[in-house]
Amino acid sequence: MIILAGPRVVEEAIEAEKKGFDAVVPYGNLDLGVDAARSQADNQVVGMDRSGFCMIWYANPGRPRVWSRPA
After folding, report:
1. CATH class of 2-59
2. What is the helix, strand, coil percentage profile of the chain, to 5?
């Protein structure tokens, strides 16, 4: 199932762009297909994994160290 998720995210991002959506946020924390969708569609594609790490960093006044996979 994971193998099929990446191409589906790309297809949905392209379809959302055609329908006039400004951004796509795929569900799931693995960011499957997010980088590929960014390269194929002109609208914003935001992965839950990276955006979640950013929210943790900004929400915590102690600014914890957060590591993420390279883009």
Report:
1. alpha beta
2. 50, 5, 40
Domain boundaries in the chain? 2-59
Q: pLDDT tens digits for the chain (71 residues)?
A: 566 778 888 998 999 999 999 888 888 777 888 888 989 988 888 888 777 777 776 777 666 565 566 65
Cα distance between residue 29 and residue 50, in whole Å: 8
Please answer whether residues 21 and 51 qualify as being in contact, where contact means their C-beta atoms are separated by less than 8 angstroms. no
Is the separation of the CB atoms in 53 and 66 below 8 Å? Answer: yes
CA distance 41 to 35: 10
Q: Which amino acid appears at position 28 of this protein?
A: G
pTM: 0.65
